[in-house]
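Input record, target 12 of the design panel.
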């Protein structure tokens, strides 16, 4: 049995602006490098699976698909 917890965040105005920049359509220099590296890693994994014949051609997936910040 898996137990999950949900928390309500009450960020300050400054924290809220930073989260909106990270989640929305930010400029790359405003985003942490780990987030960009994670996106590139997912893209590379998708192409590697495609060229090995394990999956179809990678398609665009919306930002709503991922729940985490990365």
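The sequence produced for target 12 reads:
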């Amino acid at each position: 049995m898996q137990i999950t917890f949900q928390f309500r965040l009450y960020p300050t105005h400054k924290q809220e602006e930073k989260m909106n920049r990270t989640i929305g359509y930010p400029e790359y220099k405003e985003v942490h490098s780990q987030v960009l590296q994670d996106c590139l890693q997912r893209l590379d994994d998708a192409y590697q699976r495609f060229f090995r014949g394990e999956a179809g051609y990678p398609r665009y997936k919306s930002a709503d698909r991922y729940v985490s910040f990365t």
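The helical segments are 13-23, 33-52.
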